[in-house]
Amino acid sequence: MAERPIAVILTGGKATRLRPLSYELPKSLVPVLNRPLISYALERLGETGVEDVWIVVMPGDDRTEVASRESVPAGMTINVAVQPVPNGPGDALAQVPHDQLRGRHVAVIAADSLLYGGDLESQFNSWVAEPVDAWMPLAPTDTPQTMGIAQLDGERITEFIEKPEHPKGNLASPAWWLLGPGAVDRILDDPVINAKGELEISGTLTALIEEGRPVGGRRFDGEWLDTGTLANLLATQARLLRDLEFSVLVAPDADIEACELGPDVVVGAGCRLRRVKLSNALVAPGASLEGVEDSGIVVTPSGEIGRASAD
Q1: Contact in structure between 36 and 83 (CB atoms under 8 Å)
Q2: d(CA 134, CA 19)
Q3: Is residue 74 predicted with pLDDT exceeding 80?
Q4: Per-residue pLDDT tens digits for 259-288
Q5: Residue 307 burial class via C-beta count within 10 angstroms: exposed 0-12, middle 13-18, buried 19 and up
Q6: Residue 310 has pLDDT above 60, yes or no
Q7: Is the pLDDT of residue 1 over 50?
Q8: Which of 73, 96, 216, 258 is found 20 to 30 A from 309 (Cα to Cα)?
């Protein structure tokens, strides 16, 4: 009987577009509706039947493991590997012990890519059942020149181009790479290396497609919510608030006095706000603000303000 698929969640990288928030928090702990970002990936994986998850972190990050264990679904096992240098997603995957990867179906997921709603389990089932080297859920994007764009023939990806100058379509990979054993071996043994010296997963899958290897995919019937920039983080927050039918979400222990909040504001645990007027804002746990009137901002735990317009 074939072993169950495992998952690898990538949390490293410099997250430069999330600064100043990423100066103080690892990407995995970026708050979305007062939950750490990594909890969303774990929750979705729990729906697919994946039981073993490896989380790849940066050196010195001991907080991601704690947060993951606090939000792990019942029956799921968490393991942690460290990527010494942010040298691309292929290199991050390679930090997991290879005897855990060889011969397995491995889902590799970027922590800042949130797949919301939709039927993710059917994508996983197709990935395992179909005779393909890899599978990619695909989602439409408004900026195809900045993404990896796929061309489909039925449920086979016939072309996959990273950041095409003249895109032929708008179906992008949301960095949920579902790898079969052959693709895993290729990434570990002979990955595509980009001009920056980074080991690519997308580029390696492109090479497999160009060699005629079968790579499958299908449009994801939910939503792809990106959180990789401050602007996208706030947009994702606003989208999720709409489903909750909330305009403002405030942690129960936040200390709020003489403030006007909303719409689309989330205030984290332990925050202290005095005479503040905010809209379209995220206030990270532990932050203190006084006498601020602003919109389109993310406030770090230390109180530093980052502006979405600067992305």
Answers
A1: no
A2: 33
A3: yes
A4: 999 999 999 999 999 999 999 999 999 999
A5: middle
A6: no
A7: no
A8: 258
